[in-house]
Specification:
Distance between the termini of chain B: 35 Å
Largest sheet of chain A: 6 strands, mixed
Structural class of chain B: alpha/beta
Radius of gyration of chain B: 18 Å
Strand content of chain B: 25-35%
Shape of chain B: globular
Largest interface: A-B, 22 and 28 residues
Oligomer: heterodimer
Helix content of chain B: 25-40%
Number of domains of chain A: 4
Strand content of chain A: 5-15%
Strand order of the largest sheet of chain A: 2-1-3-4-5-6
CATH superfamily of chain B: P-loop containing nucleotide triphosphate hydrolases
Strand order of the largest sheet of chain B: 6-7-8-3-9-10
Helix content of chain A: 55-70%
CATH architecture of chain B: 3-Layer(aba) Sandwich
Shape of chain A: elongated
Radius of gyration of chain A: 29 Å
């Protein structure tokens, strides 16, 4: 083999390791998962939307509108009561209740746009959640075209501007029991996306940065051979673990505050330019809510650091520690993507479980859940995060007392030994028995 | 009471036995040398005694404290200097010594410990420079000073003069001897046979995880008809 060939072979062997391939594979899985989720959400676009439809005008134009909408949708309620219609729409998980009110036709014929009242049933506030509702907007556009054609043929004296735009829509969005008059789901989605994407971004950045600090600290301790001295000092291993974690948590919280200040200015500009204020619909978080978000954020940070400490125990040097941050990065990114693109309630059960099990998800979902009164899910998340912290801390402290901290792995003879975690569990079982 | 008492110590890494059942004791105020070829189990033994790694089987006591059950008390009594030890490079020499002294503030005065360490290290004004800028020899002197500044009851020194030139090595040996005269027991490992012969009251030769010979340098030389410990070493491990 030529000299350059030898170098290429050595470089490839050194760089193409399971630890370099794993992040790429995980990334591919995440993209596939999100793609699958998106296809699931956008699938209804190919189907006729399910709606409730009420004609209170009973005129030629309203009947024309009614027939046009009926032809292009699956109508599950066609009675006359808005209240009953809303109940059916909610129970049948339909998208909207369209009401053609009395005076619809007379308004149009007197050169005013006819009003159509649409009650939207919004299921989730994620970016992808409002996409299926666009099929209902398509229905209304089709209805407009039909009425325009009718006006041109049967009422040529109508004001051209009304012929072009014969109807206007009055939106009322119902989301998680909250009725918001005058706002479309798309508007709510975009405002909430702006507001609720801040926390996931902060969580991801803080977890990645603080987590990598813990792992690289362990890698550096091992590479610089300072760990052995530290471990022989008169201080318990538990204190060493807690000292390292609390130090990193303080730095992590300082980072979070700095990020929050930065994002606060960003939010001011976003909210300032927004046409609606969700607070007027009661969609706001009180002081207790903010405390819960803070607790959830702190526990997520601590859980991440404890997890990083465990990963750090397996690192042998600084270079290896760089790769070890990848699993944490991806664990933080999965819930970030999921919570931005979709609501917890609208996710398939499998993804809901994934989202709940990852402790970093909970502060990301907390603000939106608190806004809509889903406090129990936030409290359950905090409880789970606390449990996760306790378990990971216990594992970290246990591993800190094991040879694996210095050896990196259990050395084996002929056959490959069990994984370090398995060895630790076996050791604990043996000790108990 | 013995400073160190080891009975049938075994240390395994999975199926690999690094130490295969060794027994020896170190008396108070004694300098005990552990010598042997590479991979014989010297460092593993020292790491076990320093509470760094777990005992597979056997019994070890340090000043009467059981190594497994009473590791906290053992750590108060010992000071371990690993062969390839490092210090926190972002600290200055003085900061590093202060950092370590804080772990012993219940036992001794921090400032006195740091002053003693500075006197041992003999780094002059460089004590206030970042450790990152130190030569290998300077860093080693700082680490030896760190190990001895607390006046430990037992100093476990793995290759204490590793990386030092002849003059500095001699200086460190003097410091160790002085520490012993103040009441410290020493368990050291070294590849430098002259150093072992000069410093140790007794020696154990370890090979393939087993102690093959124990005695004073004079006894061992007499037994093997050797003129120095190096010849004894070669004879025993051949």
């Amino acid at each position: 083999m030529s000299s350059i060939g030898a170098i290429i072979r050595k470089e490839v062997k050194e760089l193409l390791t399971p630890s370099t391939l794993a992040p790429i594979l995980i990334m591919a899985v995440i993209f596939a998962m999100i793609g699958n989720l998106a296809s699931g959400v956008t699938a209804p676009l190919a189907e006729k939307p399910t709606i409730g439809l009420i004609d209170q005008d009973n005129s030629n134009l309203s009947r024309l509108a009614y027939e046009n909408i009926s032809e292009n949708s699956k109508v599950i309620y066609n009675g006359s009561s808005v209240e009953d219609g809303l109940v059916v729409v909610e129970n049948e998980s339909a998208m909207a209740l369209i009401v053609i009110p009395a005076g619809f036709s007379s308004d149009i014929l007197s050169n005013k746009s006819g009003t159509v009242q649409v009650y939207w049933e919004m299921r989730g506030a994620g970016v992808l959640d409002s996409i299926p509702l666009s099929t209902v907007s398509g229905l209304l556009a089709g209805m407009d075209r039909t009425i325009s054609a009718s006006l041109m043929g049967d009422h040529p004296s109508t004001d051209p501007s009304v012929v072009l735009n014969p109807t206007k829509v009055n939106d009322t969005t119902i989301f998680k029991g909250v009725e918001m008059v005058g706002i479309s789901p798309q508007t709510i989605s975009s405002v909430m996306a702006n507001q609720s994407s801040v926390v996931p971004l902060i969580v991801v950045m803080v977890i990645i940065m603080a987590g990598s600090m813990v792992i690289t600290s362990m890698g550096s301790e091992k590479e610089n051979k300072t760990l052995e001295t530290l471990l022989t000092l008169p201080i318990s291993r538990t204190s060493i673990v807690f000292g390292k974690l609390i130090g990193a948590a303080i730095v992590g919280l300082v980072m979070a505050v700095i990020f929050m200040i930065g994002f606060g200015y960003y939010m001011l500009s976003i909210v300032g330019s927004s046409s609606i204020d969700l607070a007027q619909y009661g969609l706001t978080i009180d002081a207790v809510g903010f405390i819960l978000v803070g607790v959830s954020l702190f526990l997520a940070l601590f859980a991440a650091l404890a997890l990083c400490m465990i990963l750090g125990i397996f690192t042998k040097n600084y270079k290896a520690s760089q790769m070890m941050t990848m699993p944490i990065t991806f664990l933080a990114m999965i819930p970030m993507f999921l919570t931005i693109f979709s609501d917890f309630d609208t996710l398939p059960t499998g993804l809901q479980i994934v989202l709940f099990v990852i402790p970093f998800s909970h502060p990301m979902m907390a603000m939106r859940n608190l806004m809509f009164g889903n406090t129990n899910l936030v409290l359950a998340g905090i409880g789970y995060e606390a449990l996760f912290c306790i378990v990971t801390m216990f594992i970290a402290v246990t591993l800190f007392k094991k040879d694996i901290l210095l050896t990196g792995r259990v050395k084996s003879g002929r056959r490959k030994s069990a994984s370090p975690i398995a060895s630790m569990i076996k050791g604990l079982i043996a000790r108990k028995s | 009471m013995y400073a160190v008492e080891i009975n049938d110590l075994v240390k395994s890494y999975g199926p690999f036995k690094a130490v295969k059942g060794i027994s020896f004791s170190v008396s108070e105020g004694e300098v005990f040398g552990l010598i042997g070829p590479n991979g014989a189990g010297k460092t593993t033994t020292l790491r076990v005694l320093s509470t760094l790694i777990e005992v597979t089987s056997g019994k070890v006591t340090i000043f009467g404290h059981d190594l497994v059950k009473d590791a906290g008390e053992v750590r108060k009594a010992i000071s371990y200097l690993p062969e390839d030890a490092g210090a926190y490079k972002n600290m200055t020499g003085r900061e590093y010594l202060k950092f370590i002294s804080r772990f012993f503030h219940d036992l001794l005065d921090s400032n006195a410990m740091v002053d003693k360490a500075i006197a041992i290290a003999q780094l002059g004004e460089r004590i206030d420079d970042k450790i990152d800028t130190y030569s290998k020899g300077m860093a080693r002197k700082l680490l030896v000073a760190r190990a001895l500044m607390i006046g430990p009851k037992l100093a476990i020194l793995d290759e204490p003069t590793s990386g030092l030139d002849v003059l500095n090595a001699q200086e460190i040996r003097k410091v160790i001897k002085k520490t012993v005269s103040e009441g410290t027991s020493v368990l050291l490992s070294s590849h430098n046979m002259l150093e072992v012969e000069l410093m140790c009251d007794r020696i154990a030769l370890i090979d393939d995880g087993l102690i093959v010979e124990t005695g004073t340098p004079a006894e061992l030389k007499r037994k093997y008809g050797a003129s120095n410990i190096e010849e004894v070493f070669v004879e025993t491990v051949r």
